[in-house]
Amino acid sequence: MSNKKKKKDKNTSKGVVKIGVVDTMFARYDMGAAARAELATCPGYGVTFEVVAKTVPGFKDLAVAAKNMIERDGAAIVVALAMPGSAPIDKQCAHEASQGIMQAQLMTSTPILEVFVHEDESFDQKVLATVFESRSRDHARNAYWMLFEPDQLARRAGQGVRQGFANAGPLAANEANTSSTSH
User: Fold this and answer.
1) In terms of CB atoms within 10 Å, which end of the chain has fewer, N or C?
2) pLDDT-based confidence at 183, cuts 50/70/90?
């Protein structure tokens, strides 16, 4: 039996599921603290599930940290939080980091929720701080729902729900018909 299998069996026998939270030093906001605070408000915190956390230097380090949380710590899902800068090289590196996160998901068959707040999403520092807080908390809640209350996600399907900014809302039937005929 592999180490991965032993750890998962150990967690299952205790009845405790692990949710991983990995964040970065590079971010200008403590995204990990926001995610952990949100998870602490979820039903079953500390009883049904616990949080394992790690901080890495930058977003290119997220994939391996998340993969290790899954394989070594037995995390059933990981929330990976980071802030790409606004320079073109930052955007390119964020894309590469995103590909690494996707590869880690495929290698482990485990969801890793990528939570990036780009530094140029708002030039108003108060708005940007709100986006950091909201997106970090919302995705932490999504991770919880994916494991314990998937019906919460299903109820929101097609509703234009956003994390960080206001929801876009669903399209009305006449809006959908109009846009499909204009192509």
Assistant:
1) C
2) low
How confident is the model over 82-125, as pLDDT tens digits? Answer: 999 999 999 999 999 999 999 999 999 999 999 999 999 999 99
| pLDDT greater than 60 at residue 181 | no
Taking the domains of the chain in order of start, what are their residue ranges? 3-181
Instruction: Give which of 68, 84, 56 is closest to 20, Cα–Cα.
Output: 68
User: Any alpha helices (H) in 15-149, and if so which ranges?
Assistant: 31-40, 62-71, 88-108, 125-148
Strand partners, 53: 21
Rounded-to-integer distance, Cα 105 and Cα 110, Å: 5
Q: Which fold has domain 3-181?
A: Rossmann fold (3.40.50)
Length reported for the chain: 183
DSSP code for 45:
B
Which residues is 80 bridged to in the sheet? Answer: 22, 114
Nearest to 23 by CA among 36, 10, 39: 36
61-91-128 Cα angle (round to 5): 90
d(CA 128, CA 120): 8
